[in-house]
């Protein structure tokens, strides 16, 4: 049963597009074919395991499927995937006469091989039927578009007539509400601005921000520090107040005079240099003191202005807040009054609106039905041309024929399976694993598959059959299907293999 499940999984996409009755028929046919092959495979595996002489040099299954460290070893056989070729035309009254069938069970086929031939007469008759059905469905849809538009125009006209009065009432309601809302919004904006101004002045006073803004503290510290330094230099350099005022002129005269001792001239020059430096520094300190006093005055003026403005801003905020509350009350009254008038007028329109919506929905549903019918007819014709446009049906891949569901001189039924054959590009191994190890395996787990003649392949567990396949009461086994990776073109059906599952040590 594990092999059957794997084969059914490989043809799932082919059967998915069929209608429900056809799906059931397709599954029954494929299951019948695969069960025969699977039974032979199962009998081969079981007999091999019980005899123990065919695969592992005399070892029985219990010895093969044992735990060696963290590896579970099991025996298995290969099976190929299955492909079905179907005639996917959903409905066709014309009987397609099969003139010739080119394939039989067991035949090897390549991609593009002919499967069958349809008689030219029945082919053209069927094509004419499908083309006519597509044209009629398209005509019905186009006519439906016109009818749909007429229905919508009529429904719209009735609705518009019933909506005129409601529209005027709605405009009046919207105008009244909008006007009242604009008043509220305008006052709210003024309140917000007044609040921001109050917050700004409050923050400036509370946090003394103007003191920082005018940099009073830094200017004060700089002026005081440099003044202290100036006084220190005054004492250390023994500055004469008279020399600081006439130092430059004295220096010039002493520098230009001739005669006298060189020692006296040098002392006078040094003294005049200190006086010049001191005078320059004193001027700088005086400027810094002036900057500090100016900043202090600006700060004090700003604080006075902020306090005055804060009082005004708070008064303005209170006034605007009161006006805003009154506007909100007026807004509620305006909305209530306008809503009452609007509701009375619109009530009469609701019935017309319901009628309009019902008409629109009905017209659109009818048009959608016609559109679906047209698309189905076109898809049916396209499927017909894709399958047998030249009178022949071809294989889509290579493989071995497992089932031929058509015969010469019979009819090709619509929406039916034509043949089923193996897919040589998909190989899996059905391994029998003892029940004591089955709980350690899971779908998606990796495995290594060894063939005595073809080497080692890597694979992945794709299914674990929950029902035992063993007929022995003493040795219960379960089928684990491993799909092989890579190029499997050299492998074939029913090859014996040894499968190694790596698991974590307990």
In short:
By secondary structure, this protein is of the alpha+beta class.
Describe the structure.
The protein is flat and about 135 Å long. The longest helix is centred in the middle third of the chain and has 127 residues, at 262-388. Strands 2-9-12-11-10-13 form a 6-stranded antiparallel β-barrel. With 506 residues, the chain is α+β, with helices and mostly antiparallel strands. It has helices spanning 2-10, 12-16, 20-51, 61-64, 120-207, 209-213, 216-236, 241-256, 262-388, 435-438, and strands at 67-68, 71-87, 96-101, 108-109, 114-118, 392-394, 399-404, 411-412, 416-434, 446-451, 455-468, 477-484, 496-502. It contains 10 helices and 13 strands. A hairpin with a 3-residue loop joins strand 10 (446-451) and strand 11.
**Largest sheet geometry:** 6 strands, antiparallel, barrel
Anisotropy-based shape: flat
Average of the residue pLDDT scores: 78
- Radius of gyration over C-alpha positions, nearest whole angstrom: 51 Å
Separation of the first and last Cα atoms: 31 Å
Strand order of the largest sheet: 2-9-12-11-10-13
Assign a percent range to the helix content. Answer: 55-70%
Q: Stretches where pLDDT falls below 50 for ≥5 residues?
A: 1-68, 246-262
